[in-house]
Structures are given as structure tokens and as C-alpha cells.
Amino acid sequence: MSPSKIDTRPSYKIASIPADGIGPEVIAAGIKVLNKLAATLNTFDLHFEHFDWNSDYYKKHGKYIPDGGLEELKKFDAILFGAVGAPDVPDHISLWGLRLAICQPLQQYANVRPTKILRGTQSPLRKCAPGDLDWVIVRENSEGEYAGQGGRSHVGKPWEVSTETAIFTRHGVERIMKFAFETAQSRPRKLLTVVTKSNAQRNGLVMWDEVAAETAKQFPDVKWDKMLVDAMTTRMVLKPESLDTIVATNLHADILSDLAAALAGSIGIAPTSNLDPTRENPSMFEPIHGSAFDITGKGIDTPVTDCLALANPVATFWTASEMLSWLGEKEAAKQLLDCVEAVCEKGIVTQDLGGTSTTAEVTDAVCDEIERRLGKASASQ
Ligand code: NAI
Ligand code: MG
């Protein structure tokens, strides 16, 4: 007898870390939409466990992650992360205390940042049609400028010295280049741009370029070129259609991906996957934006007239879609993003995209769209 569908259907354990600022608002919205999708499709299960690791926890306990916390995370299939950063904690303490303290030990070395102009939204670029901007930025996520190497001596004295040393290992560069070429190869245009700054940074980034050229030989079907990071900013603005997949160092890609999100309409739409491509550790999924103190707490249950700015949950919805895809639920991932775009097309968008809807209104509209599009289909199966 073949096992019933119920017996064999996949079930995923997700660790949720909403953390600070608008993180809790957008993660609550993301989980609501994911639960709605799972209940409607009825083909897989999602189980969320919540972790209260945030800046309040840090202020009480002197650390963001309790002892044994990383080992705890390893038991999950994926991590859904909001944003970390509070006005009364220095940013380098919060970022290193939580986000980097997860990504780096769990070797989530490939940070993947897709950007496109969602249906129903507009680029601030005058001449950019929707199909003209459809990129995936691959960010090296384990070393480079964020390797944490450096120090300060004679603090506060006129002769103070501080160093921030970028580390590029052949192992680290080879694995991200291979990942980037594979990503480019999996996309229809098979086009990769390697971002560098090897004119000024004559050691690490010269090796970066050499490894790119060596890796390219293994991917003869991928067309690739090389851009200095400063010139890359102008190309992104003036010739967005000439780009497809992009690989850059930790710092360069951090900056370029915020620019990419803004060129696609708003930082409030853009997702990130922090992947361990070996799948030894769970990967972590988060919107690219930060904790956005300026709009915190205004998105849920607040009349739209009371505030000008509201958290856009779309970045988290797209992030949720990327997470489903990584977990193997590719069709569900596609359906979710389709529903999000359909809601944008109806003009139900937050103020950063030129609309007047609240976080909660956009979330409910996506849930309704899931029901409308997928409810009948799954009921008739
Ligand atoms: P941010 O991304 O929080 O905000 C930049 C601007 O974009 C703000 O005007 C904000 O209102 C707007 N914005 C961001 N997300 C939005 C959304 N979903 N909907 C509508 N508007 C949105 O970056 P900022 O201000 O540089 O950093 C604030 C804090 O966040 C800092 O503590 C920083 O260290 C932290 N941060 C944390 C990150 C993470 O946890 N991965 C990433 C970036 C910053
Ligand atoms: Mg950033």
C-alpha cells in the first residue's frame, strides 16, 4: 500500500528571530502569510519556534545569544530573521552580537539578494521598464571587509591607531565565485558581472579577480565581465538592462544591494538569503532592510492618518518565498510571490511605494489573494 499524502508530506521547523525595530512587525506579517499559504495549499507543514534574542535581551543579559543558542539553531531547517539594531545600543555591538554571530559561525557564506521591479510598482529611474531591472546580487558573507580583524590602541589619544583589515582567503573566494557562476548559469541570460576594486586594493582584490578568471573556465556557457565598484554604481543607474547576476565582496555588495533595492522601488521590498550551500547548517532568511527606528511601531493597528511612514512587509514576504524555495517548495514559493505582486498591482502598497496602506492591510490583502487564487485549486484536488 502506498503511504498516504498526509504521512509523507514534508514538515519544516523554522526558528523565528524577529529581534528589533520593525523586525517584529514584518516577521509577524511574514508568518501570518506563510501560515495562510501552508494551510491553503495543504501540501506541507510549517512549525515556527520564536526566539526573543534582541537588544532588550542584550541589555538584560549582556549578550544577544544565550549560551548554547547556536547549537539550538542547528536543529532547525531554516531561520527567519527580522532586523537587529536599537537607538541605545551601538550598531557594531548589535550587528556583531546577533546577525553576524549567526551567519559567520554557521558558514552561511553565500548571501543572495534578488532585485526586480515587482508588477504594479515603479522604478524611480525614468527610462527603466520592469524587465530592465532583474538582478541577483551574490554577496560574499563570511570574510572580506567584515572579517572582524583589526583593533584599536591608545584609544582617545591624539596618536590613536585603529585598523580594519579585510581578509580574503583563496578558499573563501573560490567558493563564492563558484556559487556566483552557478547562479548565473541557472538564469536564462547566463550573464555574470564580477565587481572588484583591484586598481586600488592591490592584494586581496587582485586575487579575487584571478579566482574569478580561473572559475570562469569551468563555466564556458556563462558570459562574464568585470567592473570596478565605483563604475558599477553608474552602470546600475544608467544601464540596468546590461546586468543580470552580480558578485561582489561583503562590503561592496552590502552597499550595491541597498542601491539596487532603491532602484527597484524601495528598500522595503528586497529579500536576502544567507545560505550555507553545503546544507550542513540551516540557512537564514531576512529582509535586507534594518530595524528602521523612524517607522517602528506604526505599522500594526495604527490608522493610516496617524503616521506618514509604515513598515513595508513585502521584503519579508519575498524573503519567505526565497526560504520556501530553498526548502524545496519551489511551486509554493512562486505562488507566494505571484500573490504579492498581484496585491501590488491592485495598488495596495505602503507609503514607501507611493501608497497609503498599512502593514496590516498589505498583509491581509496577500492572505486574501492566497485564498482567492489557491483556495479553490487546493480544495478541488
Ligand atoms: P534601515 O534599513 O533600518 O532604514 C533605512 C531607511 O529605509 C529608513 O528611512 C527606513 O524607514 C526605511 N525602511 C527600511 N525598511 C523599510 C520598510 N520595510 N518599509 C518602509 N521603509 C523602510 O537602515 P538604517 O537606518 O541605516 O539602520 C537602522 C538600524 O538597523 C541600525 O541599528 C543598523 O545597524 C540596523 N541594520 C540592521 C540590519 C540587519 O539586521 N540585517 C541591516 C541594516 C541595518
Ligand atoms: Mg546592508
TrEMBL record:
Q: What is this protein called?
A: D-malate dehydrogenase (decarboxylating)
Similarity annotation: Belongs to the isocitrate and isopropylmalate dehydrogenases family.
Kindly give the InterPro entries that the UniProt entry links to this protein. ICDH/IPMDH, IsoCit/isopropylmalate_DH_CS, IsoPropMal-DH-like_dom, TTC_DH
Supply the Pfam families for this chain.
Iso_dh
Q: What is its EC number?
A: 1.1.1.83
- Catalytic activity as recorded in UniProt: (R)-malate + NAD(+) = pyruvate + CO2 + NADH
Q: Which UniProt keywords apply?
A: Magnesium, Manganese, Metal-binding, NAD, Oxidoreductase
Any one GO MF term held by the record is: D-malate dehydrogenase (decarboxylating) (NAD+) activity
Domain Isopropylmalate dehydrogenase-like, which positions? 13-366
Q: Which cofactor does it need?
A: Mg(2+); Mn(2+)
